[in-house]
Every structure is written in structure tokens, then in C-alpha cells.
Write a structure and sequence with these properties.
By secondary structure, this protein is an alpha+beta fold. It is 62% helix and 15% strand. It contains 12 helices and 5 strands. The protein has a 5-stranded antiparallel sheet with strand order 1-2-3-4-5.
């Protein structure tokens, strides 16, 4: 690797890290806001919020790293062109294909990163997220114990606790159950504890009173007690335990596609293979869109005012590639037998990059056209 290759590769990696950090923060904050609303509603701690947001990072990164790589390639190429560095290197005999070497190395590096994320880290994070969500759904304490506030975990259930002692003892507890249309139950106790039994979570209340109001007969029954055990099972709604999904299964397991796994996921072998091709295509696109951005800026030549028209062209080409990729992805979701179409947008991107670099390698064609049109313009003026 020559000096120029190392220099350009260093610039690409630095800008890639910067753009990745900025985009990750933007997407992470957007994701964190929705998670914060959900977790605050369930009374979860800050540590749970941090864990879930960190687990969402692999999914964010696998989608934004190719975009960050494209932005870094366009920015570095534009800066090298505006500072005449590309002109000097081209005058030394470097062809556009030779100039693309550091971009290809950079794109391969990005592709490897995206492949590791897509095939391994993202399925692991989805699996851990599903487990954490199931634990949160089953966490009775977090959903009920909010000091000084009336909590409604499900419709018809109201729970209140004034204070929670350092020994996890509940002080001044109120529980109302109006889900039965025939009667309403209310419990008040000076102290209470939540314990787990074989039959489910139990609320042990001490020194309290229960009231039962019959709506048909309009009769109110009051009972005082020293201790009372009340089952909380079923009062918090059904726990949504998600089954194992394609996204939470690593690619190696999908390629093996055992009958037990196919039954668990309720997917065919072809559908699993189509999912693997989608993950692989994300890595391929991390490579090809870097070449597209580089080729689009390379045809602009030298300009002190920058290559804004070429930058717009690069963005338009990126939009075309991503739009085609999303369109083919929808068709493959409907019919997995069309999985070869997954790579069609990437192949088109490679063709675009080759055409752009070929055009940059033959600037004389453009000059000949300009020379032919110049005499005609002079004749018109005369």
C-alpha cells in the first residue's frame, strides 16, 4: 500500500468514525425517547433503560454504517479534489481505478463490520431484548410499586402505596378491583409485602380492612383483618412472551435449518435462506455505495468551488440504489424464491461505479464534444 493509499484510508476512517458517531447519537436518542416512555410507565429503573438502549445499538449501527461510509467517502473525495491533491496524484500517473484502491479497502472494512453486526451481533441483541422484555412484563414489583401515586396496571385495577421502607415493606396500601361487574373489592392495610408463591405473586397485608360491594343487591360488606393474603395472579394482564423470531436467530443456525428450528420459527427453509441473503446484502451495500460516491465525485475534475453538482449526483444515485433494494426486498418477502433479486441493486451500484470511473478515465471524450460545439457557437454569434 502506497503513501497516498494510507493517507486517504486514514482520512476515510477518521471521517467514518465521526459520521457514525453523529448518526448513531441521532438514531439512539430517537429510540431512547420511545423506550423511556414505555419504561417509565412500568416503573423501571435507570439501569434497565441503559441496558435496553445499549442492546438496541447493533440494530441501529447495521443500518447507518453504510450511510456513514458513503458520507465519509464523498466528504474526503471532495476535500482532496478542492485542495488539488487528487489533481497532483492523477498527474503522477494514477488512473481512476488506481485511485479507487483505498476506497475499496475502506469499503471492504465497512462490509466486514456490517457482516459481523448483521449475522451475529444483531440476532444476539434481539434475543436478549426479547428476554429482557419478558422479564419486565413479569416484574410485578416494578409495575406496582410507585410511591405516592395511583397505579392502574390494567383496566379495573387500582393500586396505591404511600411509602416503601428500606426493608421493602409497603406502608399504607390501597388495592381496588372492579373488573367484576357484579361486585367491587377494596383492600386497605397499614403494612404489606409482595412475595412469590408457586401459584404466583401474593400480596400479604397486615392490620387492614376489606370492603366488598355487591352491585346487584347494593350491599356493602366490611371485614377487618390482622393478616390477609391476596393473589395478584391475573391482575396484571397477560404476559406477552414473544416466541423466537428470524431476527433473533443467527445466520449459521438459519443456514443449518433443522426441522425443530423450522417448526419453532414457523418458517420454511427458503424463507430462512432469504433472511440470510438480506443480511449479506447489507454488508455488500456497505462496499458498493462507497464506490458509487467516489466515482460520482471523480468525474467532476478540479474545482475551487467544490463538487456540489457531483455530490448531488452521488446522493441521487444512492437514493436510486436504496429504493431499488427496498422494492426488491418487499418482493422477496412475498415470494422467497426471488431471493437472487436481493443483490440486483448492489450489482447495479457496481455497474454505476465502473461507468463513472471509466468516464473519469476518458476526459478527452468530453473535450472533443466541447471542441465540436465551440465552432457552431461562434458561427451563431457571427
Amino acid at each position: 500500500m502506497g503513501r497516498f493509499d494510507k493517507y486517504m484510508l486514514q482520512q476515510l476512517l477518521m471521517l467514518f468514525g465521526f459520521f457514525s458517531l453523529v448518526l448513531a447519537l441521532v438514531f439512539w436518542v430517537n429510540k431512547a425517547v420511545s423506550l423511556l416512555d414505555w419504561l417509565m410507565g412500568d416503573g423501571q429503573s435507570a439501569s434497565t433503560f441503559v441496558q435496553l438502549t445499549l442492546l438496541s445499538l447493533p440494530t441501529i449501527l447495521v443500518n447507518l454504517l453504510p450511510i456513514a461510509a458513503f458520507a465519509a467517502t464523498v466528504y474526503v473525495t471532495n476535500r482532496l479534489s478542492s485542495e488539488s491533491e487528487l489533481v497532483v496524484v492523477q498527474a503522477a500517473g494514477y488512473s481512476p481505478y488506481r485511485l479507487a484502491r483505498p476506497v475499496m479497502i475502506f469499503g471492504a472494512f465497512v462490509a466486514v463490520m456490517v457482516a459481523i453486526l448483521a449475522h451475529v451481533l444483531v440476532p444476539m441483541s434481539h434475543q436478549e431484548l426479547d428476554l429482557r422484555r419478558a422479564e419486565i412484563a413479569e416484574d410485578v414489583t416494578a409495575r406496582l410499586l410507585t410511591e405516592g401515586a395511583f397505579v392502574h396496571p390494567v383496566k379495573g385495577i387500582t393500586f396505591y402505596v404511600r411509602n416503601i421502607s428500606p426493608a421493602d415493606e409497603l406502608e399504607d396500601v390501597y388495592l381496588s378491583n372492579s373488573r367484576d361487574s357484579n361486585q367491587r373489592q377494596s383492600f386497605m392495610a397499614s403494612r404489606a409485602l409482595i412475595v412469590k408463591d408457586d401459584s404466583g405473586p401474593m400480596l400479604l397485608m397486615f392490620d387492614g380492612m376489606s370492603q366488598t360491594y355487591e352491585t346487584d343487591t347494593k350491599r356493602l360488606s366490611v371485614t377487618r383483618f390482622d393478616s390477609f393474603a391476596y393473589s395478584l395472579e391475573g391482575l396484571l394482564g397477560e404476559t406477552d412472551i414473544r416466541p423466537r423470531t428470524l431476527r433473533s436467530t443467527d445466520s449459521l443456525a438459519l443456514l443449518r435449518a433443522t426441522p425443530a428450528l423450522r417448526k419453532e420459527l414457523n418458517r420454511t427453509k427458503l424463507q430462512m435462506f432469504a433472511e440470510v441473503t438480506q443480511r449479506m446484502n447489507k454488508a455488500v451495500q456497505g462496499f458498493v455505495i462507497c464506490l458509487v460516491g467516489f466515482g460520482a465525485l471523480l468525474i467532476g475534475g478540479f474545482s475551487r468551488f467544490g463538487l456540489w453538482r457531483q455530490i448531488v449526483l452521488a446522493i441521487l444515485l444512492l437514493v436510486v440504489v436504496k429504493t431499488l433494494d427496498n422494492g426488491f426486498g418487499g418482493a422477496i418477502d412475498d415470494d422467497p424464491r426471488l431471493w437472487p433479486l436481493r443483490y440486483l441493486a448492489s450489482l447495479l451500484a457496481i455497474l454505476m461505479a465502473l461507468v463513472l470511473m471509466w468516464k473519469a478515465a476518458h476526459p478527452r471524450l468530453r473535450r472533443k464534444k466541447d471542441d465540436k460545439t465551440a465552432p457552431r457557437e461562434n458561427e451563431v454569434r457571427s
